[in-house]
Task: inverse folding
């Protein structure tokens, strides 16, 4: 029997109050470069199919942290890691982990667009070929087209697939890099200041794309722009001097943070 109270319940309110599932669990994360500590005991859970922004002043540890999530710091000889990062119930720092396969599940888009010196088609096809997928030509064509559609680029360059990726505009190059990341069917996409080298129009297009992608992907974005964090993310984490100071719903972080340091940063008093 449906009561009057039941009829007055707003379904949207129910949805927003449902707890999101955490996909990434980071516990006691510490990172050193030689004897200099860059991250201190970071505990952070990241929800699936949401955008989580990492904000904070330059040198606060945002980029170091995001590179822990796909073990990109492994390529730095002087870098050492301790702690635990569990993704989908699996410790990604387990010695048995195949790091190449891990990075296929966790795509990365960098600060400056970095297409390979190959055609647009080969840029997108590179990942699937590397991992031995879509060996059939028709399947590969479909995968490239689907990835470019998801990256909002297909209609603009469908007649330019054989041109070098480096011949595209800056904003198009960054969307090409997003298509390249999507092509290996990742669960997670990491973005390290993806708009810092782009003009306002290209930035707006990337932000629209991030909003569309969160339906299917878990996205973690490092940004120096608090306006961008407020526009694109559902949760925001504030780092300062290698410490995670505060994390919460983006609206709360920007309107009524619990920590005085967070408030000082988001109101522009320092940083």
Result:
């Amino acid at each position: 029997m449906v009561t009057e109270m039941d009829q007055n319940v707003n379904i949207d309110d129910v949805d927003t109050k449902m707890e999101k599932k955490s996909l990434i669990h980071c516990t006691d994360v510490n990172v050193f470069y030689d004897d200099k500590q860059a991250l201190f005991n970071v505990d952070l859970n990241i929800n699936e199919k949401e955008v989580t922004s990492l904000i904070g002043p330059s040198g606060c540890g945002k980029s170091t942290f995001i590179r822990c999530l796909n073990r990109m710091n492994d390529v730095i000889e002087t870098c050492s890691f301790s702690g635990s990062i569990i993704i989908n119930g699996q410790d990604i720092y387990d010695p048995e982990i195949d790091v190449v396969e891990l990075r296929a599940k966790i795509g990365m888009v960098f600060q400056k667009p970095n297409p390979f010196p190959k055609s647009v088609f080969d840029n997108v096809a590179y990942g699937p070929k590397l991992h031995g997928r879509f060996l059939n030509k028709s399947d590969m064509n479909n995968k490239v087209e689907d990835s470019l559609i998801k990256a909002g680029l297909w209609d603009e360059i469908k007649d330019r697939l054989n041109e070098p990726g480096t011949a595209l505009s800056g904003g198009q190059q960054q969307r090409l890099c997003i298509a390249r990341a999507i092509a290996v069917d990742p669960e997670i996409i990491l973005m390290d200041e993806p708009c810092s080298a782009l003009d306002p129009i290209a930035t707006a297009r990337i932000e629209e794309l991030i909003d569309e992608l969160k339906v299917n992907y878990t996205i973690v974005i490092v940004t120096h722009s608090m306006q961008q964090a407020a526009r694109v993310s559902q949760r925001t984490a504030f780092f300062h001097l290698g410490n995670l100071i505060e994390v919460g719903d983006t609206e709360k972080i920007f309107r009524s943070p619990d920590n005085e340091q967070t408030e000082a940063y988001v109101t522009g008093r320092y940083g």
User: Anything to note?
Assistant: The longest helix spans residues 137-150. The longest strand covers residues 22-33.
